[in-house]
What we know:
Layout: H1 2-11, E1 21-31, E2 34-42, E3 48-55, H2 61-89, H3 97-103, H4 109-139, E4 144-145, H5 148-174, H6 176-188, H7 197-208, H8 210-219, H9 228-253, E5 254-256
Parallel strand pairs: 1-4, 3-5
Antiparallel strand pairs: 1-2, 2-3
Helix pairs in contact: 2-4, 2-5, 2-9, 3-4, 4-5, 4-6, 5-8, 5-9
Amino acid sequence: xxxxxxxxxxxxxxxxxxxxxxxxxxxxxxxxxxxxxxxxxxxxxxxxxxxxxxxxxxxxxxxxxxxxxxxxxxxxxxxxxxxxxxxxxxxxxxxxxxxxxxxxxxxxxxxxxxxxxxxxxxxxxxxxxxxxxxxxxxxxxxxxxxxxxxxxxxxxxxxxxxxxxxxxxxxxxxxxxxxxxxxxxxxxxxxxxxxxxxxxxxxxxxxxxxxxxxxxxxxxxxxxxxxxxxxxxxxxxxxxxxxxxxxxxxxxxxxxxxx
Length: 259
């Protein structure tokens, strides 16, 4: 597959315009034993200006059209996962452990309330990292021949990540008044000094970032459903309905095959 990939990089230049950069995504889709790759063309500013679906061993437009949709949707899903998940997944939820450990044995209900909310935040973050890691194993291994099952797997993980992210942002926006009161009680009851400087900084930053979290949640698409599973199903259905819009946008920049 490395050989086909390298040859497509050369062949892709036939559709390249002046000053464009040629990028061949490392995912292939097989049609009649021919491996098709998605080629992306970018201008000097990094903006995508065109694309193509190409194979080394075939110039069949019919085959390229068959490969177009699964390749386009898979590459678009990977791009969305990287854009929306990679940065959060690099942050460890275990940074909350010292804060939780320092106060986990406090019987005071007002203190317990804040501890339980931090535990909830940590668990959602752990869940996010786990699901993102599962998704990443599907696309981060280099060159890969993808199938409809791969696409289905990534769409499912995308839906879970969107719901989990919404839960994290909900805590970081709606529950800030609780954290403000919690910080006051920690100081009033002489427990603030028990915390490490890092834990104190975490609480301050959590409160400080309220407006940013509110803006993130306001900008996000609404997720309906009463349970976690219902909300995941809602997002998954929305992704399915958005497929046509993705394909129409891709069609405008597609140089080969002709659609």
